[in-house]
Every structure is written in structure tokens, then in C-alpha cells.
Amino acid sequence: MKNYRRLLIALLLSLSATAFSAGETPLNTNVIASGLGVPWGMALMPDNTLLVTERQGRVSLLDLSNHQIKKISGLPKIKVAGQGGLFDVALSPHYKTDSWIYFSYVKDIDGQGATTLARAKLSEHALVDWQDLLITKSTSSKNVHFGGRIVFDNDNHIFLSVGERGVRSNAQNLLMHAGSILRLNLDGSIPKDNPFVHHDNALAEIWSYGHRNPQGLFFNQKTEKLWETEHGPRGGDEINIIKAGKNYGWPIISHGKEYWGPLAVGEGTERDDIEPPIKVYIPSIGTSNIIQYSGNAFPVWKNNLFVGALKSQHLNRIVIDENNQASDEFRHFSSVQARIRNIIESPEGWLYLATDQGEILLIKP
Length: 365
Fold this sequence. Notes:
The chain has helices spanning 2-16, 95-98; strands spanning 28-33, 39-44, 49-54, 58-63, 69-72, 86-91, 101-109, 112-123, 126-135, 150-152, 157-162, 180-185, 206-209, 214-219, 226-230, 237-242, 279-281, 287-292, 305-309, 314-320, 326-332, 340-345, 351-355, 360-364. The chain is mainly β. The protein is globular. The strands form six sheets. It has a four-stranded antiparallel beta sheet with strand order 1-24-23-22, with helices on one face.
């Protein structure tokens, strides 16, 4: 059945390739791995391998030369339930010298789950020196809205997204990490210039707040803009540029409706003291991770945003104008017929897609 699906996807992609050629450059799209559960995070290693985390609580190493998969041991106990489990993976900005690999996952705290940031080193096919850097104050009996994306800036900081854990009021409570984007030093300590460091009624790790379920983060090293995607309720998925100390509105304002009826959430769609989104999706597409393309393999895509779509099962491409506003949108790879969970760009400008069907796809010229 798995081989049949791979052949079917290959056929569908080949039939749709002309509809998604990058300018005059035809695409070569291949399924390079399958059977991975839900591959949530991907990190390209220096030795031509791809480190892949699976939400079910597994880590694999995919050899990009022969597509062989090897399992990695050494993970801690992970609470796998509902939307929770093992999430993102990212190499330290100084990986060649410090060897640290960063992870996010759900830690069991007295039967409830907390989004947790950790790091470890890879020795042969095992993780060693595991360190929990931050067990966030985000516990909830609900197994939804964990966030879990991690990225780095240019100044040795790491950002972690944390969902509001299914409790709406959490997103406006600055004494909780839930519903926030957090900013830490690489060792897990708190940067002295974080916006709430000197506030008695706020946690010092918080960089921004008012988020529902932030599923995507991307830091553009050239523009130093931090991009974020998050799920709305019934409608109202958002793309935001994250700024220090800003409130992004949930659940005070939203472009979405209540699940139980055609009623707006909150008091409207905008307010002067709340940061507006760059783009809103109505209906929701189920946003996952986001990147801003910077490669040379497909010049026509330069500076376009790419967002994986879970609910509507496609790769979303957004053209951004000089004011960082969305000027056009395109929807690609619906023929894959799978929830696109993650997207990363390689140094060559190629794209790697991970789907909830347990597949990794490679897109290159």
C-alpha cells in the first residue's frame, strides 16, 4: 500500500508539474521517505542527512544519498496525546563547534502536558547530554494547542512558540507562557533586553502574546523579521510579523467564528492596541510551518512566503510587497492529497516538505 501511494503521488506530481513550474524552471519532485508517522520537524545535518522528529515520540536520520532511514535513541519520556508529542528540531547556530541540537516536546507534569524546550548532542545513533532548558508554564488537561516551533535570530537567541493550550484566557495572561512567543538565550537563560524583564506581572521569557496556536516560525536573517503563522478558530488563520512586547489579540479580537455557531469571537477584528496580521485566511487552511524563500534555485520565488496547509492540504505561496504586505496568493501541490506539516529550504534553494502521511518530499529544479 505504501509503495502504491508513492507511485500515485509521483504520477500526480508529474501531471501537475507544469502548473507549478518556477518561472521557466521545471520542477523535479520526489518522495524520498515514507512510513514516518507524523514528521513534525526537520533539520539538515552537515553530513548530507536529514534529522526528522515524529510527533509519536521518535527521531530518525534520513540519508539523503540513498534514502535509508535509521532510528535515533536517547529521547526522554514524552507525553503523546491528542496534538501533543515530540515537535520541532533545529541545529544550534554554532553547531560545528558546540554540537547542540534543540528540540521541543510535551513533558508530563502531574498528568498534564507542558510545552518544553530542550537540547542534546548526537553521538553515533543516540542522543546524549539531554537538557531541559525550559519547562513552560503552560500545563493544561487539554491535549491541544501546544505550539512548539523553534527558530534562532542573529544574536544567539532562540524563539519558542507556545499555544494557549485550549484555554482562551491564557493568551492574555502574562503570568503564563501559554499563548506566547518566548525568547531565550541559547543556554535557556533570559535575555536582559526581553520586553517584560522588569515587569512584576509578566514572565520574563515572553516576547509577544495573544496567540492562539502558533504552528510556524521563521526568522529572516537578512531582514531580521520574525514571521509566524497561527490557527484561528473557524476561519481566521493568520500570518504575523512578531514584534517585541506586542499583543496579537487572541481571544479579544479574531477574524474567525465560534465552532458552535456563526458568531464572531471577541469584540471584532481590530483594535488600536493590538498588532494586526499581515494576512488572514477565511476559511481556515490549517497553517503549519512558514519560510521566506531566499534561494537561487527558483529566482521567481525570491522573498515569497511558503506556508504548509493542514486542513486544505496544499502548499500556500504568498507574494510579499515592499511593505511586507501580502499582495497575491497561490495554492500548489493539492495533488499530494496530504496535510503538509513542515517545509524547510536547503542551502541549494531546494524545498523539503513533510506530510502527515509520513512522507518527505524533495522539490528541486
